[in-house]
Design goal:
- The protein is of the alpha+beta class.
- Helices cover 26% and strands 17% of the residues.
- Strand 1 and strand 2 form a beta hairpin.
- The longest helix has 16 residues.
- Helix 4 packs across helix 6.
- It contains eight helices and nine strands.
- The termini are far apart.
- The protein has a single domain, classed as Cysteine proteinases (Cathepsin B, Chain A, Alpha-Beta Complex), CATH 3.90.70.10.
- The strands form two sheets. It has a seven-stranded mixed beta sheet with strand order 1-2-7-6-5-4-8. The chain has a two-stranded antiparallel ribbon with strand order 3-9.
């Protein structure tokens, strides 16, 4: 297996040696594959404001981030240690809520806001009525914009770690959630939650702009957060992702390579509520 910068696994689903990392025993997934028979793909028509650099510019943009050490990768791995322990979905099929939750935390890190450990279990449990069910990052992104995310904890207005108990869905929780909303994002409002699409060039633009992107991969049945668009080797690019499985990759990080490295569905979190403490 190859490694990005010597420590982060580079994962290609077509390579047998990578499959044990991509499909470990005892974990849950939760991204529901899109049924292309009933929902055929169509052309993507937005977001209009996302400027996409030509691939011929990627090397210069990547090299600039490396020289300045100012990418989300660098911010997350400052001094070789993670800014926070990656969130763990703990066996429930809630990856589609965790990808957005970790994007919110990365956006706060980028914007130099206080570290808040969010609990995506609250979002998924409320949306699914307490059931352990899969979904799409577009669903959790919509929730984050409209309602916000809960803080992990057992105090007033918090949601206990990995709980699916709806008794915690109180007015105090909803008020606290509203402190951690997505205030700007890239979503196509004309498309359903399961059909949110960002192209490879748009995902690269997010990576070069330090915009974390929750991303669903149909082949994996899984949703993760894109941290950065990285050069694996000259002429070869892929997403650096933050996974929601504990003790996976390097601090939850891995790089996807190959023909399936571009997400089937994706959104992007531009900013979070700045007043949230």
């Amino acid at each position: 297996m190859d490694f990005y910068k010597g420590t982060i696994p580079i994962l290609d689903e077509s390579v047998a040696a990578c499959r044990d990392v991509l499909y470990p025993v005892g974990v849950s997934y939760g991204a529901v594959p899109r049924d292309y028979a009933t929902d055929p793909p169509s052309m993507f028509a937005g977001p209009d404001g996302l400027k996409t650099p030509d691939p011929s510019e990627w090397d210069a943009l990547y090299d600039e981030q490396e020289a300045n050490e100012d990418s989300l990768e660098h911010l997350f791995l400052r001094n070789g240690k993670p800014a926070f322990i990656n969130l763990d979905q703990n066996g429930d099929g809630y990856c589609w809520a965790y990808s957005t939750g970790q994007a919110l935390m990365l956006a706060r890190l980028r914007d130099n806001l206080p570290l808040v450990r969010l609990n995506p279990h609250a979002t998924a449990a409320i949306i699914k009525g307490g059931r352990d069910e899969g979904g799409w990052c577009g669903t959790s992104a919509k929730w984050a914009a409209e309602n916000g995310y809960a803080v992990e904890g057992t105090g007033p207005g918090e949601w206990p770690l990995h709980s699916r108990n709806l008794r915690y869905d109180t007015p105090a929780l909803r008020a606290a959630m509203a402190l951690h909303k997505t205030t700007e994002d890239w979503r196509d409002m004309t498309r359903p939650e399961y059909g949110q699409v960002l192209t490879a060039r748009q995902l690269a633009a997010c990576g070069f702009s330090n915009i974390p992107a929750p991303s669903d991969f149909n082949w994996w049945g899984h949703s993760v957060c894109q941290v950065r668009w990285v050069r694996i080797e000259r002429g070869s690019w892929g997403p650096l992702i933050l996974n929601s499985w504990l003790n996976w990759g390097r601090f939850g990080l891995g790089v996807l390579r190959g023909s399936q490295a571009t997400a089937n569905n994706a959104v992007a979190v531009r900013t979070s509520t700045p007043s949230a403490a």
